Amino acid sequence: MTKQDVQFSKLVVFINSAVPLTLLLWDWSQHQLGANPLEYVTHTTGTLTLLFLCLSLAVTPLRKALGLPWLIQWRRMLGLFAFFYGCLHLLAYTWFDKFFAFGAIVHVDHKTGARQRYELPAGDAASEPVFVPRSADAAEGDGWLLLTAYRAAEHRSDLLVLDAGDVARGPVATVQLSHRVPFGFHGNWRQAA
C-alpha cells in the first residue's frame, strides 16, 4: 500500500470517527436527544469510548492475523478518539449531572426545570446516586436515591438514603461505615429475585 493510500485510509477513519460527534451535536441543536438528554449524551459518549477503545486494541491482532502491517497506522488515531469520547463522557457527567459540584446531589425536573440540591459538608464528596423505585408499580421518580458519601475529615464513607422527590431535605437514613468506599463512575441496583 502506498503512502497516499495509507493517508487516504486515515482520512476516511478520521471522518467516520467524527461522524458520531457531528450527529450528537445535530441532535442537540434540533432538540432530538429524547426525554432524558443527560442519559442519552452520557450513554452515547460512554458507548463510543468503549467502541473506539476496542477498535484501537483490535488493530495489532488484526494486523498480525491478516498480514497487513499498514493497519498499525490507524491504532493511534483510534486510541485518540477513544480518549476524546472518554473525555466528553466525563465532561457530560460532571457538567450536566454533577454541575461540577462533587459535594452535592442535584435533582432536576426536566418538565419544569426546577432544581433541588442537597449539599454535603465541606470537604465531603458524593458518589453517583442509584435510583431505587419505592415499589414495582411506583410512579416515575417515586423512590429513593442511594449513594455513598466520602467523609474526608474521618477518612471513611457513609451510605445515604434520600427521598428522590425531596432531595433538598437531605438523608432520610444514614448507614455509618467504618471504612472508605472507593468511588466508581457508575452505580447499579438489582431488584431482589
Strand content: 15-25%
Q: What is the string of helix and strand elements?
A: HHHEEEEEEE
Helical residue percent?
40-55%
- Report the mean per-residue pLDDT as an integer: 85
Largest sheet: 5 strands, antiparallel
User: What structural class do helix, strand and pairing data support?
Assistant: alpha+beta
Give me the oligomer status.
single chain
The total strand number stands at 7
Low-confidence segments: none
| Shape field | elongated
Number of domains: 2
Instruction: Round the Cα radius of gyration to an integer and report it.
Output: 22 Å
Q: What is the helix tally?
A: 3
End-to-end span in angstroms?
56 Å
Keywords:
2 domains; five-stranded antiparallel β-sheet; 193 residues; two-stranded antiparallel sheet; 3 helices; alpha+beta; single chain
Structural write-up:
This protein is of the alpha+beta class. It has two domains: 3-97; 104-176, no CATH class. The protein is built from three helices and seven strands, in the order αααβββββββ. It has helices at 3-29, 37-66, 72-97, and strands at 104-108, 115-119, 125-126, 130-133, 143-151, 156-163, 171-176. The mean pLDDT is 85.
